[in-house]
Structures are given as C-alpha cells and as structure tokens.
Design brief:
136 residues; single chain; 57% helix
Length: 136
C-alpha cells in the first residue's frame, strides 16, 4: 500500500490529503498532464489518471495523455473539452503560485500543517502528525 494511503488509513479522522499541481518546467508535458488529470477528475477519475501519469512519466506525450484517458474509459469528447478549459489553466497557475510561495522546488513535496516533512516514511509521518495533534 502506498505511503499516503497508509497515513490516511492510520489517521482517518485527523489527516486530510490536499493535492496541488506543480508542473515542472523541465518536463515538456507536465502542464498538459496536470490539465488532463484535472479533466479526468471532472469524470471522477483524478487519482486513477494521476497514478497512470506517474507510472508513465518517462513516456509522456500527447498520445500517452489520450491513451490513459481512453484506458480509464473516460468520455473522450468531454475529456478533450475539459482539458482545454481555461479555468483548469487558471487553477494550475494558482496551485503553482501557492507552492512556490511555500518554498516548493520539486515533486513530491509534503507538508504537515504547513511544515515541510523531511522524513517521508510512515514513522516520519506519524511523528509529525502526532506532534500536530498534541498542539490541538
């Protein structure tokens, strides 16, 4: 089970996962991929699309972006329309600005209550979460 899922399972009432887009400038298809994941989210498949992107990150191109959507049985007309929606680009820009203001330099970057998590193990997460719960 991936680490974030373990943390969410361990603290179901205390931990909430918030995802921000941070398309890397040196990756030619990062911004398109972010828009595609958000478009897939409009059909309830954000995380499935997200995971497929990361599984195929070294092979990303426009064909792969479309292929992932097709593999997930998305309504392709709706997907293409949503992916081109300027609102998604505005959301990505907002996320990028927030991340940069928080000092994010790459992905993945994880914060617990606004504090950068350096020990990204289950033990590191648990220590950070327990510390924050004690300050409640």
């Amino acid at each position: 089970m991936p680490l974030l899922e373990q943390v969410l399972e361990k603290y179901p009432k205390d931990v909430k996962l918030v995802f921000l887009n941070f398309p890397l400038r040196n990756h030619n298809f990062a911004r398109q991929s972010a828009a595609a994941a958000l478009a897939a989210g409009k059909q309830g498949k954000f995380w499935e699309y997200h995971d497929a992107l990361f599984e195929n990150y070294s092979k990303l191109d426009e064909d792969m972006i479309t292929s992932i959507a097709s593999d997930l049985a998305l309504n392709m007309d709706r997907f293409k329309k949503e992916k081109a929606n300027p609102e998604l680009n505005n959301l990505i820009n907002r996320d990028l600005q927030q991340a940069q203001a928080a000092g994010v330099r790459g992905t993945p970057t994880i914060f617990v209550n606004g504090k950068l998590l350096s020990n990204r193990s289950l033990q590191g997460f648990s220590q950070a979460v327990e510390k924050e719960l004690k300050t409640k």
